[in-house]
């Protein structure tokens, strides 16, 4: 079976700064992959290239067996690439339910009336049913992150990209979010998760991919990767002997 996502020799620069440098990566269907790297390593830029928010300077991106390198973001979303953003930006004056409905109707390209039941299911999944009719701008940080996840899932993704969705949460909030992400993965959605909270990643993903200066530094079993002296030196500042 072909990978659900494949990047081949992808590159992206901003002026003289090379942010993604000849990077290749494959994600298998049904896999949960964690992406790790220091600040400025190019992680979010990588997501923006996959979703079509940015165009590659070189290389190719395939999704579900199709070359999507030249497709715009909305077309990739409707093919099945969903994402969350590091800083949630819900439509604050709209209700929580309306925010999720917007993701289903516009992201997935469906009629509103066809989306109601699925939106309710997602509010249950993300524990937001009690907040359904409240303005999204009134939510706590955890609730905003749950709404961000619900909106992404409303687009009916085959592949879900999570960008530091656990950042800023307490330990108990983080654990609750981990359980939700595990449930999403168990439903058959492939996941690629950028996260600095390593224990959250390891609880969900089966493989880690570490990047530094836009290049692959290491990949493999999460615990083996985290024990690598090279990764510890670059990511945690622990000098290798």
Structure write-up:
This protein has 241 residues and is of the alpha/beta class. It has two domains: 26-55 and 71-80 and 157-241, Rossmann fold (3-Layer(aba) Sandwich), CATH 3.40.50.300; 88-155, no CATH class. Helices cover 38% and strands 24% of the residues. The chain is built from nine helices and ten strands. It has helices spanning 43-51, 73-79, 96-107, 112-125, 141-154, 171-186, 198-204, 222-226, 229-236, and strands at 5-14, 17-27, 32-36, 58-63, 66-67, 81-83, 159-163, 190-194, 207-212, 215-220. The strands form two sheets. Strands 6-7-8-3-9-10 form a six-stranded mixed β-sheet, with helices on both faces. A hairpin with a 2-residue loop joins strand 4 and strand 5. Helix 3 (96-107) crosses helix 4 (112-125), helix 3 (96-107) runs parallel beside helix 5 and helix 6 (171-186) packs parallel to helix 7. The radius of gyration is 18 Å and the shape is globular. The mean pLDDT is 93.
